Amino acid sequence: MSAVDRPDSTPARPFEPALTTGLDEKETTAPVVVTGGKDARKVLSAHQRNRRWKDFGWAMLYMFPALVIFVIFTFLPFFQSIYLSFFVTDQAGVPVRFNDVKYYSRILNLDGSGRDEYLKSVLITIQFSLMVVPLGIAASVALAVLATAKVRAIGIFRTIFTSSVAISVASASVIWALIYNPSVKATKWLVDLLNLKTQGLLLDSATALPAVAFMTIWTALGFNFIITLAGIQAIPQDLYESGKIDGANNWNAFRYLTLPLLTPTLLFLFIISTISCFQAFTQFNVLIANEGPNGSTNVMVYNLFTAFFKDTRYGFASSIAVMLFMVVLVLTLIQYRVLDRKVHYQ
Amino acid sequence: MSAEVSRRPDEVHSSSYQVMEVARKVGVYFLLLLASLIVLFPILFSLSLALQGSTLAPSLIPDFSKLDFSSFGQAFAQEPNLGRWIINSFVVSLTVTLGQLVTSALAAYALATLEFPGKNIFFMVFLATLMIPWEATVIPNYLTIARDLGWKDSYQGLIVPFLATGFGIFLLRQYFMTIPKDLYEAAVIDGCGRTRYLWSILLPLSRPALGTLAVYAFLNTYNQYYWPLLITDSSVWRTTQVGITAFRQTEAAIFNLQMAGTLIVMLPTLLLLIIGQRQLVRGLTAGALKG
Q: Which of A2, A48, A140, A168 to mutate to test the interface with B (most CBs of B within 10 A)?
């Protein structure tokens, strides 16, 4: 699908096209020389070329503020991060000694030292994603299906289901810290049920990561709900009508219509949620504030924070950052693939 | 979706059908209320604790006969900087929002309306910014701002790195492209300058997109945590999000003040959700790209 016909094809949701952000941009900008056929283009070419270069000056002027910010705070630092990751730095962040790829082999435990705490941290991050992502998506599908009920005041319920997007992870963490606080006894029944040694879910190495994961599912619920509901609402209603005529009940309609047609949305959510799990930091810093009981919640971004901010090992921290970037990049590229499929799907 | 599908037309108005309909609606409302209760639990929990006075062992449900609203005022007395944190957050969020609107509108205008050599390359450059996650740039940025520029504990340190956004550029470009190019051609032929066209014609026509970007930018900036944590040392320069987590540590045992303070800093974004829900939902659906 080209970006040219997108905007007017879905007037109700003019913003949705941003999801497919011009990957096929070349097709859309090439035929913009619109004045007639080949002959007309030849006649106008001198004048037009002149205008294109004049517009180039203006375009540079208009893009200048954004470009300056991006060069200083996105592109240069990105390459500096890669550069720093090959060096040992001093306390002020100045590279002092070339270190080759030692930091990388250290993280992946390829240096033969047998100390696997960084590799373990990678595994903890994956574990965390596996706890958060499937449950989070399942919960949002349940909420979104519920929110399509045709009853009065459904708008109020939709606002309620959306509410967690407005609450920062930091504020939510302060609240959840008290929910998990043993002296408030909010989770006492759960502790009794699991027969734990300690009252605090965050203090036990078996429950600390699941507790943070559960809280993370809640913080992401509003966003996941919005995306899932939009996905369900995009399914043409006449499909349900014909399903009804064929005798499908509600469950069958959900199982054989909603779910298959929602797959692209869910795949998209899967990638986005996984990326945000790999980037999660705030809840770990507020709820746990260290590497967790027996290091059980020491995710990669927290490791990065420790190396960077507490230990001022900028080179080593940069190598963790670069590895995180690679993970996010791979996931982002898969995401584009998924979105492509979504476009062809319907 | 109605409950019964394979029903003969003559049965539709029968009383048993009406009873089924009522039962179905009651069931749906029950599920909706139950789900709302679960989703709202943390907010209700914090409200409950905030209203129970300074007890060390609060219960989940407060005693409604003696609710204590004094905690909201006390939070400001206990933490004199709370007001300052709110001001900081608003100054930073509003400036970043305005800055992103300006830089995004200008860049999007160039990409959507003007024809110039190398346009695709610039487009790819802006696209690339969306591929680079914050943790891949945060260390050099910290060194630049804190060490080289000496902008720790300052508004410029909190604001300047966020004055441009790839997401905003794409959002506005997408919207600008829906506005017919003929309008631009006609305006230019009539002697309207390029900048004047942007300001007097394109921007007024693009209010929905600008609203979406504004709400999205404000929410994201207000809720920032990592960067303000790095870049602020002294208490007066904290933003609400860093402040409230620090407040939690200093007032570890005073549950009602902790929760009252948290509710106070959550209030602006909760109001924004209620007022600007349409824009917010649009922004999040589109901004999903950024992750």
A: A168
The H or E element that residue A88 is part of is strand A87-89
**Count of other CB atoms within 10 angstroms of residue A305:** 22
Residues from chain B that touch A95, judged by Cβ atoms under 8 A, are none
Partner-chain contact A84 B139, CB within 8 Å: yes
Answer with the residue of higher pLDDT: A102 or A41.
A102
Cβ of B258 and A178 within 8 Å?
Answer: yes
* Best residue of A56, A63, A306, A308 to probe chain B, by most B CBs closer than 10 Å: A63
Tell me the ipTM for this assembly: 0.88
The one-letter code for the residue type at A271 is I
pLDDT band at A238 (very low <50, low <70, confident <90, very high): confident
Q: Which CATH class is domain A120-345?
A: mainly alpha
Q: Do B286 and A15 touch (CB under 8 A)?
A: yes
DSSP string, B74-104: HHHHH-TTHHHHHHHHHHHHHHHHHHHHHHH
Is B35–A161 a contact, with Cβ atoms under 8 angstroms apart?
yes
C-beta separation of A231 from A262 below 8 A? yes
Q: How do residues A53-87 score in pLDDT, each as one tens digit? A: 888 999 999 999 999 999 999 999 999 999 999 99
Mutate to test the interface with A, among B139, B195, B230 (most CBs of A within 10 A): B139
Q: Where in chain A is the domain with CATH 1.10.3720.10?
A: 120-345
Residue A117 pLDDT > 90, yes or no? no
> Cα(B153)–Cα(B98) distance, rounded to whole angstroms?
21
Among candidates A7, A55, A162 on the partner chain, residue whose Cβ is nearest the Cβ of B115? A55
**Per-residue pLDDT tens over the stretch B82-127:** 999 999 999 999 999 999 999 999 999 999 999 999 999 999 999 8
Sign of torsion, CA A280 A286 A289 A294?
Answer: negative
| CATH classification for the domain delimited by B76-290, as one of 1.25.40.340, 1.10.3720.10, 3.30.420.40, 1.10.287.180 | 1.10.3720.10
Instruction: List the structure tokens of B220.
Output: 């994201």
Give the closest-approach CA distance of B9 to chain A in angstroms: 13
Nearest-CA distance A114 → chain B (Å): 27
Q: What is the pLDDT of residues B144-186, one digit of tens each?
A: 999 999 999 999 999 999 999 999 999 999 999 999 988 888 8
pLDDT of residue A34: 43
In this complex, the residue of B31, B244, B291 whose CB is nearest that of residue A146 is B31
Whose tokens are 């409302």? That residue is B29
Distance from CA of B75 to the nearest CA of A (A): 15
CA distance A132 to chain B (A): 15
Residues of A within 8 A of B161 (CB-CB) are 69, 73
> Predicted confidence band at A248 (pLDDT cuts at 50, 70, 90)?
confident
Q: Please list the residue range(s) of chain B that carry CATH number 1.10.3720.10.
A: 76-290
Contacts of B115 in chain A (CB under 8 A): 32-33, 51-52, 55
- Cα angle, residue A102 at apex, residues A100 and A103 outer, rounded to 5°: 115
Position A44 scores a pLDDT of 58
CA atoms within 13 A on the CB side of B3: 14
Is the pLDDT at A145 greater than 80? The verdict is: yes
Work out the average pLDDT over B226-242: 95
